[in-house]
User: Fold these one by one.
Assistant:
Number 1:
Amino acid sequence: MPDDPSSDPARDRMQALMTVCVLAVASLAIAMLGATPARVSTSELMGHARSPGEAAFVASHRGDSASAPENTLPAVESAIAGGFPYVEVDVALTEDRHPVLMHDRTVNRTTDGRGRIAELTLAEVRALDAGSWFDPAFAGTRVPTLEEFLDVLAASESKALIELKGVWNADAAARFASAVVARGMERNVAVASFDTRTLAHISTASSVIYRLAIFRALPDDVVAAARTMGVRGIVAKDMAVIARPEIVDELHAHGMRVVVYTLNDGAQWLEATALGVDGIVTDDPGSLNAWQADASR
């Protein structure tokens, strides 16, 4: 092609440099957007806000603890095989800050060992028998790590409600979030805690992971408390919610969800469902499923 008589080499070089700069900025912006996935929505993870009388989702407490030793992989696998939408487990930190599935502060009740979980190393915890107390058929079952639990969960269609026991610092929260992200589970996990600091550290570590505040006794203004804690729902004792049924509608009006624990019989299920709670944590998920099926007929 012939030369453009109006071309100015210096001007052309400047325009080319500006174009490169614009493209570089745009590429960086796209990369940053791609690295920050959209926050999981409440409806995506917890479903729509239930109406009074509508079936709540079922969360199997500590795995399927009616069929296998609580907070072990056999219990988790049984819950998943049962088709329960949520597997609820507890995760605590060992002395060397490794997350493992354990509810109590000590290992005394659910293993053949003794001592506080926070004063035992991962190696010491992993050496314990976490199954014989439940049934000799589970002898030799180990206390699972968080990573082992997530690997089992990732191979299923179930979601997890994970209670973080005690106080977690920023490093522990970051490692937790990294384990979840590495398995592509950010949109399938809800984290719950009594501790405001722990929830704040999880929020810093991941803007995607869904967070719930656990309450034994409800604050005067539940919505304000939930907003202050940066959560999008609560987990509460059923009697606390029954005593103040209006909070279900209040939380729903602000896009939040209500989960109650730990309900194990038809009378409790009926009371909670009548309020329109969104989730029920139970030790007997199979019976709750059957009860809901009968109630819907």
Number 2:
Amino acid sequence: MSVDDTAELVIETGAEGRAAVLRGPFTIHTVTAAEQRFRDLDPAQALEIDLRPVTGFDTAGAWAIAALTRRAKAAGGSCAIIGATPSMEALLDTVTKALPEGEAQAPPPVTLTDRIERLGRAVAAAGGALAGLSGFLGLFLARLVRAVVHPREFRLTSLVHQCEEVGVKAVPIVALMAFLIGIVLAFQGSAQLRQFGAEVFVVDLIAISILRELGILLTAIIVAGRTASAFTAAIGSMKMREEIDAMRTLGLDPALVLFVPRILALILMLPILGLIANAAGLLGGALMCWIELGISPAMFRTRLIEGANTSHLMVGLVKAPVFALIIGVVGCRAGMLVQSNAESLGRQTSNSVVMAIFAVILADALFSIFFAEMGI
């Protein structure tokens, strides 16, 4: 046996360092030497700590033993405590629970199987979301047909109110956005076409870009950010307060009362907002052409009539009802997915805006491919 005597503390270890007997007070005044001897022990071996000869014990001693026990477990060994009194055991248990957790282990390397699994889960989640949107679209169409068949059940006052909320109140931001886009197109187009002496064709650039694509697309994006979030927040708040359950209890159909007026208002108002955006964009482009290129408003109007026909306007307006339907369905469905907590409301509101904008841009791309293949 080897014996160390430091500050009235004696540690005895066997020939192979598998057992330790603590003698005397094992407190903050004597724990330093003991901790050094503990570190010299091999934690992979079976260790045994005998506390029967200990005359004093505090949290410092309990910490040293708890740390040794943790090192032994981490190394695959074991550390048994014998001879501890009930008060020692209680103190050891408290200190062990209070020890900070070790550093988190590095995550295992991502394999090809893991990547395929993540891709599969993402595809399945996307498919589930698409199926949910399709079901919600079917619900809206069914309730719309019911409102046509039974006009007394349709809430005209709610439709007028929603038309004001999603349409009239959105006119200033939509008009300002389109006006600035027209200015930017005219300025950038003139800077490029001036190099070839083709400044007059900037009118064609503005007309086709705004009437065919940018006018209705940017309007739909603004409406998606403004209205989809409003739909989700309003319906989600009602669901959190259990107002939708109360409506069902009173015999009211939430789809007919809440969804149909909102989505129908969007379908009616988005084409009008698109026309306002087209007019504001052309006005901004005409103003910049007059300032930058000296093209008078009369010349701009003449060139606009000659270079752009009504087909470009119709291509843009045909997209409006589809965009409105997408935005309305996404916003209302996200509201119905809200749970009974504020965190869920914020998450679904954010998701509805992102999904609505993404779906609108995707639909616009599909429309562009379709019209290109049809030669329109």
Number 3:
Amino acid sequence: MTPPAGDLGLRERKKRARTDAIVDAAQRLVLERGLDAVTVEEIAEAAQISPRTFFNYFESKDDAVLGQGSLELSAEVREAFAAGGPTGLLKTDVELLVRSTLEALSGPGHDQGERVLEILQAHPGLLGRHFAWFERHKSQVVALFERRHEAAPLPADPEMCAMVVFVLARAAMDEWGRGDRHGDVGDHVPHVAEQLAAILTA
């Protein structure tokens, strides 16, 4: 039985709140004591969760520090997009895919993003983890565009299309952060998409 939409919204808010709590705890501890001196168990305790629950949100301590969660798009979203939907209009469908990506990622907010930069300066070895995470998840989105191309030819290379998804997702998160994180981050997607279109057609 499918949960009511309100329950799904509540579940998503709880997931995002717990993700934020884990990232906040990880970053605070690492900034206080250094990366090597902090354990997953200590992060979990600070976030008031169990170590087992920690791994439901992040694959490693490094990912938590960087705010890099898993990208788990639902099967419904993946299949609809790959088949040329859900609307059949590429711009609209890409915006919907970006919103779904943001819901899955629950990326770092403005304060967390600033702390990531500070931590990367102190621990440049984390850059490798960041790039590996990005490439791993980018390949999943590229595969979606490759499948869609078979159903409805794309106007650009699938890899370029996938990059647009991540650019829009990051731009929406930045805009949301500048607005003190009020409302749903996904609501900023149409606006940043319009800005990108305006840049490319100016």
Number 4:
Amino acid sequence: MAGFGSGLARRLYRGEINVDFVGKQRLWYSLSAGLLLVSIAGLIINGLNLGVEFTGGSVFSFKAPTASIEQVRDTFTKQQVHQAIPQTAGDRWRVTTETLTESQGTQLQKAIATEYKLPQNQVDVDLIGASWGGQVSEKALIGLGVFMLAIILYLTMAFEWKMALAAIVALFHDLIITAGVYAWTDFEVTPATVLGFLTILGYSLYDAVVVFDMIKEVTAKLGTGSKMTYSQAANNALNHTLIRSLNTTLVAILPVAAILFIGTTLLGAGTLKDLSLALFVGMLVGTYSSLCVATPLLVTLKEREPKYQQLARRLASRGPGKEPSDAETREPVAAANGATATKRRKK
């Protein structure tokens, strides 16, 4: 079984197996549309569970390993605080409440210290105003906007605007689906989550750039006399980067999965789940979108160009029995790999 798996990997790496990603674009578009609809429905019905950093409120953190959630909630209720949300992180409690005044926060701090026999300075209190939370939200949106603008400019200069458009669509695809997962699971959205979103966008962009770079090299010399259409050349290039994309995703996602499933369940590292869930979902969706969304969309845009339409018509006129052979479809990729190797030797 292991020999079969390693043999399959070698054949994928050498380009001996071609998965028809581009030809199944309707399947990928339908799957993505379904995921997007479910995600948007979650955002509309449930909304995002924004953390106190965005909405404003008060956070109390203290150590009480033997306390129960009912006991902690009752401590706050006695002080006329009725919107307390207790969470455990190891042997510490993190309780979020509505916005309190400084005097109310100090009074509650004393009550917690008395209830659990702690020095008052061991009860941490953070009072976050709604205006400060609004500033955090504004800065997060500005950061996301700047990131998107930088991506568009880079891809347009390094490749072309159609590749930039395909990559941006894939990035929004990843962002909406990841946000939808947060909406349906009711995970709290914190500044760490925003960092996770930016990280997965960068990861998705990396995957798209690797694929687009190979497609650019393979299709650079396609003309009216070529033996394959743009779709066939792009699909062949995609298959040659497939094993690289899968290996990169596997290596990157293992430590993230460890943080998400082991850290948050066994070790009680609750503060890490906000970041790790975004990374885990985003890496999976990002790999899928670079293979099954960005590339098919790019092909759809490029096949509308007159020269590629003319090439497709000429090859179609040859009839179904005269399709290019596997050796012919591998020629452009082999040439591109040879050109890349030559450039490296010259450097």
